[in-house]
Specification:
Elements (H helix, E strand, L loop, with lengths): L13 H9 L5 E5 L6 E3 L4 E5 L4 H18 L4 E4 L4 H13 L2 E6 L8 H5 L1 H11 L4 E4 L2 H9 L7 E3 L6 H6 L6 H4 L4 E6 L8 H11 L6 E6 L12 E4 L5 H7 L2 E4 L8 H8 L4 E4 L14 E4 L4 H9 L2
Length: 313
Amino acid sequence: MISLDKKIMDENSPVAARMIEYGKTDELFILIPDNKKQALNLSDTVYVESTGGNKIAQFFRLIKLGKKIIKANEIKFITVQDPFYLGKVGWLLKRKFKLNLEVQLHGDFFGSDYYKKENPLKYRLGKFIIKRADSLRAVSERIKQSLIKIGIAENKIEIKPVKFDAEYIKNYQPKINLREKYPNKKVFLFLGRLAPVKNVDFLQEIFKLIANQRKDYLLLVVGGGDIKVKESENIKVENWTNDPISYLKTADCVLFPSLSEGYGLVPMEAVAAGAKVIMSDVGVANYELKPSQTVKIIPLNDKPAWIEAILNV
């Protein structure tokens, strides 16, 4: 396995526990690109090693370490976490040692022009790799349909959804109440990474317009990242919380305006929490999550429709 998830190196993390579980079925060697070089055994059958070095060095060290592991062990199968530069490492090892390659797709990279415009070279590399993989593992039906549209055979694609405990969320007792924290406000929650693809700037524009009509409507942005959110009377920012379920359960509505998503765990968890959701037609929208009295799905960047949906909450 070639993975980007550095939490695997934390023996007490949930993802490390999941790797140990995988190791009960098959012996598992995991490589992680990272500027810090480490090696550890999570169990008697699960071994993890990170590369060290800068980005360029990490690429070549992944290949070198992969060759070393394959030569020393009876490796039959390679799985990589994305179709881009990890995918290229996996493809080079597959080609040299005649192994089966699985590429995991956690994002809907080929379902719209978003990633094609953002980084054309990366997009073309990903397309090259997925067409040469032996199998593809997607987290949602939307990704599967996007792959089929670009010519990938359906029998090469397996859907493996993101797991979450809906029953736990449903029965969870909130420790924080946003209605008490922001009294006399109707709280609209954005929860997640502040990256361009998450489209938070779009929400800021909407709430500047909504402020003229509803002074009691509050956009609460919870998360961190590259996008800067300017606070105002009706826009507040908090750092990431260790208790996201309390936020989901006590917000008046959860907003998910992303431009592209492979899945969309936040709206799925929000529905499990009993929250109202307004979201873009991305990820789980119209597939795993259908429109209902509590779920409103809106075309990308349809500002009038978003404003209308929010004002009707």
